């Protein structure tokens, strides 16, 4: 028990008579050889991804997750266009106080129609 082969998923010992599945140097109980996302049992010949910590992800779930990450990474917020009047208002306010307090920034935001983050930056 102490020194025998252990299941990567559960860290429980595997008796020598039990059927196992292997992925590289990792060993799993037959029922533990499953996708961590959809819990689908992986069979011989199924394509899957092996994470560094030994967790398994079926090809479909991996590609879906990767596609979602790629689409979120590519989304940028539109650039803010500041009009001459807004710029003049901001310049005057920051000339009077280079580090305006929050309530002053809120007032500038409402006067100019710009987002608070834009006024702060």
From TrEMBL:
A GO molecular function held by the record: RNA polymerase II transcription regulatory region sequence-specific DNA binding
Subcellular localization, as worded in the UniProt entry: Nucleus
Domain Homeobox per the UniProt entry, residue ranges: 73-121
CDD domains, per the entry: homeodomain (cd00086), LIM2_Lhx3_Lhx4 (cd09376)
Entry keywords, A to Z: DNA-binding, Homeobox, LIM domain, Metal-binding, Nucleus, Repeat, Zinc
Location of the LIM zinc-binding domain: 5-68
One example of a Gene Ontology biological process annotation: neuron differentiation
InterPro entries assigned to the protein according to its UniProt record, in alphabetical order: HD, Homeodomain-like_sf, Lhx3/4-like_LIM2, LIM_Homeobox_TF, Znf_LIM
SMART domains (alphabetical): HOX, LIM
GO cellular component, one term: nucleus
PROSITE patterns reported for this sequence: HOMEOBOX_2, LIM_DOMAIN_2
Disordered: annotated segments: 96-121
A Pfam family it matches: LIM
Record PANTHER family: LIM/HOMEOBOX PROTEIN LHX, LIM_HOMEOBOX PROTEIN LHX4
Protein name per its UniProtKB record: LHX4 protein
Gene behind the chain: Lhx4_0
